[in-house]
Amino acid sequence: MRNFLTFVAVALVTALTVALVAPPFIDWSARRDMVARAIAARIGTPVEITGPITLRALPTPYLKIAGVAIGPPGQPWLTGPQMRIELSFASLFGGRIKLDDVSFDHPSLRLGPHFAPPTEGRLEFDHIRATHADIRIERAGAAPILLQDVSFEGAAASGLGPWRGSGDFAYRGGRANYQFATEGFAADALPLKGEIDAGASRVDFDGRLVLADAPRLEGSATFSGQAPAPDGGTWPWRASGQLAASGDEAALADAQATFGQEARALEAQGRLSLTLGQKPRIAAELTAKTLDLDALLRKDKEAFVPPARAVAAFAALLGQAFGRDAALTKVSLKLKAETAYLGARPLASPQLTLTGATGAPAQIKLSSGLPGSGRLALDGALELAPAPIFRGRGQGAVGDFAALAAWVGEGEPALASRLAALGAALPQGDISASGAIDLSPVGYAVRGLALKVADSRFNGGIVYRLPTADRNGRLYLDLATDALDIEAAPNVEAGLAWLGA
Question: pLDDT per residue over 290-317, tens digit each?
């Protein structure tokens, strides 16, 4: 039987060679069906040809086809206006078909929704390339993935691999470059290494592609990029861990995340998940031992950072994350640490929960220790546009107001002066307050206030509007008390100096 197959192969090659010796004398375009059947028999799927066919033997044997469709009638998985194949006839004697060069111009490729490894590997691609390709990946129960204007150059030892390739494709922000290399299929798994570089962002992967009911990626991955910094520079970021991805869902377990320049970066560990599709979103749960905000934000020759600068940087990052042009439609972050450093002071047990959607207020839950034996907790919504304002509930306590005031007013002389004047009006001892607050750059309001100053207790509301260049500031007080220590009561007259104009 083996000798018979060898004889058939030799006979086929001989006949094909005779046909190629005099191709100018044969109108191959009139024999489209015969050529289509011959190709279909070798690749195991239907082929339709509607355009002209050119077949040449010298100097390089090649076949050029226009208007080709490969796949089931009415639902081909590959179509293109032009396809060119250079053949290696010597390979046919070994029972393999080697294609020295296969090129596609403006092809359209449709894959899925069902995926399975190739059943055989007789075809060898020494060089395969495509230009201006459109790829549509159909998925069961999910929207298709569309890749446009894709270029590709690669090779394959067989349909079962190993494969290698590189190229680029268009995306919303420009063009992204990619390259990959695989081993051969082991059952339904394809070992794979690859990278995608899209300007400031990059993905590196080392693992395997598993073709199950829903194809999935498993292995180690690193995501990196850059975020704009408030001073006009950039902050590099990086997240690496064990990736499990299928469909639109990807999770990075045992993740190591960094944000900022390498020597000054914030570092945290935990888990990240990413949902792609028409509304991409990301969620992260991270824990850090130390968050050194001074190191991240300080400028050259600075030892620490004024707290006001950290607030401004945080607001700028939120504006980028939740702006109308943001790449992600939803962001969710849970971050906690043992200690944070800001303004050369340790902040005990800071915790931040942040959730927001594009063009909508960000939901914030923040708690942290403060200088002066203080503690702050905020829970509410931060609206970024057209003017930033926080609305929610707040709760705070302090044992040494002067120490807290000096920290808050660092780098802001006018604010430091007002806080010092307010401190002069307050008695020594613990101060605590809670209530519903509205906080913005122009002032604040507290409703349902519960205020305890030393042994005195107050309930009511406060509205304070900061002075501007053309308008005096205003303070509205509506307070009641059922326990007032006259000797330790706030010195209202002394405190008027903090209001300024």
Answer: 999 999 998 888 888 899 888 888 888 8
3-class secondary-structure state, position 301: coil
Neighbours of 58 (CB within 10 A): 8
Predicted confidence (pLDDT) per residue in 81-92, tens digit: 998 888 766 655
- Of the candidates 465, 461, 481, the residue with the CA atom closest to the CA atom of residue 473: 465
Instruction: Give tens-digit pLDDT for 460-486.
Output: 999 988 777 888 878 888 989 987 877
What's the rounded Cα separation, in Å, for the pair 82 and 63? 11
Enumerate residues 6+ apart whose C-beta is below 8 A from 449.
433, 434, 435, 458, 459, 460, 461, 462, 479
| 179-192 residue pLDDT tens | 999 999 888 899 99
Instruction: Name the burial class of residue 398, with classes exposed (0-12), middle (13-18) and buried (19+) by CB atoms within 10 angstroms of its CB.
Output: buried
Residue type, 228: P
Q: Cβ(291)–Cβ(266) under 8 Å?
A: yes
> In this predicted model, what pLDDT tens digit does every residue of 383-415 receive, in sequence order?
877 778 999 999 999 999 889 989 998 888 877
Rounded CA separation 332/353 (Å):
8
How far apart are alpha carbons 440 and 237 in whole angstroms?
A: 30
CA distances from 451 to 395, 396, 421, 424, 481 (A): 10, 10, 19, 18, 10
Task: Kindly tell me if the per-residue pLDDT of 97 is higher than 90.
Answer: no
DSSP per-residue codes, 95-157: T-EEEEEEEEES-EEEE-SS----S---EEEEEEEEEEEEEEEEETTEEEEEEEEEEEEEEES
